[in-house]
Write the structure tokens for this entry.
Amino acid sequence: MIDLPTAVQTFFLAWQGLPVTLLMVFVPLLLALPCGFAMAVVNMRRVPVLCPLCRVFISFTRGVPLIVQIFLIYNSLPSLLNLVFNTLGIPFDVFGVNPVVYALLVFTLCETAILAEVFRGAMSGIDPGQLEAAESVGLTLTQ
């Protein structure tokens, strides 16, 4: 039997986490949309230096579990940034950065790789005949 007071209390407790959840969903999505589209275009046009880099990034990001990526970014990136900032003489406390920033970074990178493949698949799914028809009515490749 469900304990109604406990269920209501749990619902309102979970409701308090909604703003953070929405932040973790929409901010990475908004940041990843243009980056993923740019990566898809780079892969479709086979830009000499950037295409292999994008492919390695996409393969790594999609192939490594998200929890491992979170572990790497949260534990390794601050130490690496601290080393760089100390070497350059920049007084910045990287260990004082809110962990939410690192979570947003990891989710943005993960979403970028996923969206790059989604956009690439969508663009490669366009029939060449449709492209020719669009060019014949005066549209450019970008349009």
